[in-house]
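Query structure, 429 tokens:
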């Protein structure tokens, strides 16, 4: 029997269907709300509003659950690789060995970027933020593959664009880093796997034989898996909204890169390290900063803490915290910022302000410490987040564009400006 929700308005009762997801989540389907009642809903920040049905990622914020296509994040982090998780997110199933082998070969074949696109880096100032470069480069890919991207409904062009995005993003990211330090760019090496190839493009120099450290390779694989998707977050919703106008996939994904850049979203991993650095410079005491985070008059927030959905531990934060200690231990690194982070976490989790608001460490709280240990500079942290989120953005865009009933996204509003008034010529003002 269909479940319904009733609204009583101006003495009339209206019924709307209730949708139940495969994990028991419930939503009121208000598709006919305005037609039946003349009402629209208002929900600042879409805190209570679902924008779509989706079969890709399931989050349970109260229980701290995260699954990609039904597989628990901890199992995938432990047993899978980033490229295999990318395949799972995009195509919905874990690939057989033969299928995955073919997928790896296809991705490897697309890792180069056009030499003219490489010349675009010359136009950026040396200290341009790498998120500016990444967003521009991803958007510019449409200039090189316009034939294959002009119709997002064409399955062949869509598949080719997906492979190009997955394959070229590590190259674009590594080239941005090399540009920022004035080093020669290292071309991709087809004999290496996805992560090893990226590490070599980031840290090798032409004059030497570079051996990829397996500890660094495994740590990066894990970090990218943990960032790969997170249902309808700010940047993914941006990708879906831009993609819903049938703009090409590179335009849609580059809009996601720009949304992720903000310090309240993916930019938080850079802001966490800057915050920990500031605490370290002031002697390492965390009490002052916990007090500042609680003070409404200070615009200071405990970066890496809190989450729109998780009102319990972000499962990714737990895994990253353990990986952080393992990596620092294996690489023999003593980072004072790790001690500060752990003191900060401990102090906050004992403080009523954070407990009452259910503010826990999120994915960004410890990730920057690992990137630091791997030799990745702070300004590159959010780009690393984008590299990890690429398969998620692609999978969500694909799910939307392949949905025959998908509409162009166009929210309503409640107007609260001036009512009608006559124009007054300037001579009379
Ligand atoms: C990501 O959505 C996703 O899935 C995102 C993400 C993904 O994988 O895509 O998980 C990645 O973006 C993680 C979040 C990274 N951002 C940060 O770490 C920045 C610091 N955190 C916050 O700014 C905040 O917690 C948000 C943005 C993450 C969530 O904000 P909400 O859901 O809009 O919550 P809110 O701002 O309404 O806060 C509720 C209360 C407020 O206090 P009161 O008005 O109730 O008194 O909690 C307070 C806030 O002031 N609060 C914080 C805080 N976060 C929330 N106070 C101090 N420090 C913080 N970090």
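Result returned for the query:
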């Amino acid at each position: 029997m269909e479940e319904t929700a009733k609204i009583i308005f101006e003495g009339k009762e209206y019924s709307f269907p209730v949708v139940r997801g495969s994990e028991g989540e419930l939503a009121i389907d208000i598709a006919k709300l305005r037609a039946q009642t003349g009402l629209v809903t208002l929900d600042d920040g879409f805190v209570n509003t679902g924008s779509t049905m989706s079969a890709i990622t399931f989050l349970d914020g109260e229980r701290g659950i995260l699954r990609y296509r039904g597989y628990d994040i901890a199992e995938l982090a432990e047993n899978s690789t980033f490229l295999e998780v990318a395949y799972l997110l995009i195509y919905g199933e874990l690939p057989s060995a033969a299928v995955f082998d073919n997928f790896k070969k296809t991705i490897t074949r697309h890792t180069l970027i056009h030499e003219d696109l490489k010349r675009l880096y010359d136009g950026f100032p040396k200290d341009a933020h790498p998120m500016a470069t990444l967003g521009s480069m991803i958007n510019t890919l449409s200039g090189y593959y316009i034939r294959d991207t002009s119709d997002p409904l064409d399955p062949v062009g869509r598949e080719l664009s997906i492979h190009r995005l997955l394959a070229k993003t590590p190259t674009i990211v590594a080239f941005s880093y090399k540009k920022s330090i004035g080093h020669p760019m290292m071309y991709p090496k087809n004999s290496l796997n996805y992560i090893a190839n990226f590490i070599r493009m980031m840290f090798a120099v032409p004059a030497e034989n570079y051996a990829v450290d397996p500890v660094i390779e495994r740590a990066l694989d894990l970090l990218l898996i943990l960032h790969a998707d997170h249902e309808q977050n700010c940047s993914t919703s941006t990708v879906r909204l831009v993609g819903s106008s049938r703009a090409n996939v590179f335009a849609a994904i580059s809009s996601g890169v720009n949304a992720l850049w903000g310090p309240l979203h993916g930019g938080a991993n850079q802001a966490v390290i800057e915050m920990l650095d500031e605490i370290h410079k002031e002697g390492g005491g965390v009490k002052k900063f916990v007090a500042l985070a609680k003070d409404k008059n200070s615009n200071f927030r405990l970066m890496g803490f809190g989450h729109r959905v998780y009102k319990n531990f972000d499962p990714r934060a737990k895994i990253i915290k353990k990986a952080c200690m393992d990596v620092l231990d294996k690489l023999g690194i003593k980072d004072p910022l790790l001690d500060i982070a752990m003191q900060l976490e401990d102090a906050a989790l004992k403080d009523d302000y954070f407990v009452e608001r259910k503010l826990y460490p999120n994915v960004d709280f410890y990730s920057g410490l690992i990137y630091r240990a791997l030799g990745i500079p702070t300004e590159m942290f959010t780009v690393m987040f984008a590299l990890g989120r690429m398969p998620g953005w692609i999978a969500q865009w694909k799910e939307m564009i392949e949905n025959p009933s998908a509409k162009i996204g166009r929210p309503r509003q409640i107007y609260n400006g001036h009512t009608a008034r006559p124009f007054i010529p300037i001579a009379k003002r």
